[in-house]
Amino acid sequence: GNGPGWCNAAWCYVDVGACAASTELVYASARFPGAELFYSYTTCNATADESWDVYSEYTTTNRFDGVVLDATVPLSLYPDHYKLDTTGNVASSDGVEYYDKDILFQGFNMEYLNKIMKYVNVSGVTYKPRSGGAAHRTPNLYTRSVYDVQVGLSDLAASDFWITSERLRMAPYTSPLYTDNVVLFVARPEPVTSFRTHVLITCAPFDPLLWATLAASIVSVGVLSVWFSNDRGLHHYWHDKIHGTKWRRASVKRKVLLLLFLALDATVAMFLFFFSAAVEVDLRQSISTKILMCGFGFWVLIATAAYTANLVGFLNKPQLGVKYSSMSMAIKNNARICSSIALKNEVTSQWPRAAFVFKSTMPEMLTAFDGGECDAISYGYPAVRRSYMSEFCARDLVCSGALVASVPIAFPASPRAVAAVSYAIRKGLDDDINILDVEREYLPAPVCSLTHVAAPEDGELRPLSVSTMTFPLFILLLCAVLATIVKLWKEYGKPPEAQKRMAHRIKRVADLARMKPCRQHSNKNLLAGNDTDKKDDNGGANTIESMGRGDRSDSFESALESCKWSPDRAGAATLTNDGVIKAMENMQHMLSILRDDIKGKTK
What is the mean pLDDT of residues 473-478? Predict the structure, then answer.
């Protein structure tokens, strides 16, 4: 006849276990469900007409060729799916018009389904009201429509249905149409004008952990700057405090107090650099300090720019007293939240400590809110915007920004129709047929703004966190590590030859400083180079005033030779404590002279 070619093709039952490795096409028998019978066309009809290959396509797309599908509509709701009464207004979901077969359903759901059903060759869709008997099953109108699909009264339900665990037990769902954000709606908050709020707004661009990280980094840079300081830079004061004679002679307690004072002083200096968005630049400072300041300067640059950019947004944003800006705050403030009974399992599992008040319909939730039974309403933002905006605007309800749940939206469909409708949905997306685009054409003109507080689809201001500042923090840490390595190498990693030369110089100066005649010489005579012989109190020999003229190296060597210490010349075999201290001071003075002599600044 006019049936598909495979209807007249030969077939046979096969042992699916024995044919597991075979490449033949095998199908489970629908004629004897539960009998575990399997049949195949290709196994028994390899040389016959091969029109059997259209069987798979037939079971998904061509099965409904010329068939009219039945779709249950849960209620009359503009602009989703609705009927009009005799006056041209939207009919009631329980009125006579809703059950009148002569009055057709309208809405974007009908238009969308009519557009995509062409992909499965359906000749049409009949939209009908829900059955009255479903009221014994559940009070929710949408779940009643799913019940009609479950018992075979309809092939699918035409509306935006949340995919819930309860409904999945009743009927399968098609592939999702989109994801619905169920958010919290609250009474429009009043602007906050308290002094405390205006003060704290300046801290809003960074979260508390980032502020703590910022302070810790500034303190760390300050402490390292004390350690890296030298006697030539702008902060030689720090270096002199921990390298002078007073430091060596100080007690442990005094040293600790001095270190704490220097750390505080350096920290205040680094805070000043940060607040002025700059760092110190001094070519005389140590290489370790320069490396550290490179990383600190980059950190200051990024942190200052990020803070300034984010602060502008917070200052321009109205400060509102939203008690329920998040579900955590709503739970903390013991908010009573009206919610759809269809989402009971989903919201209670996600927020077990929240005080939900479950209602069957949106009108019931609004009545409960008006009566003080609820402090907030949780519902899908798109559904409120298109179907309940007037009711929400009349009560001055706005989105608080708190996300309660994200639930996918799809059509409940019978087992025989679910694959075909899912296929039609996907093919529609491939051809840019999206239910949200169709819905947009039906949206009413906005009555008021539901986004007085940041809505889920809007860009919401959030404090910056440590994770957003990972790169500049890494650069600062890297520079600090490199500077520390350089400092340690300069302190402890000098070549042995350099250490020997330094030790030899110190020994020569120490020998000179221990001599009593040399200790009695004034700096003026040493630098002036007076040729006049000077005698000490005991009539001693000439000292290093002969260095004033002639070759400086020879004179210095001569002075050292003439000033070599001996018990006979010093008049004592040992030195007292005061003598040792005096010798060390002279040694420090002579080291300074040597340094200046090397630089060519003093002759």
Answer: 93
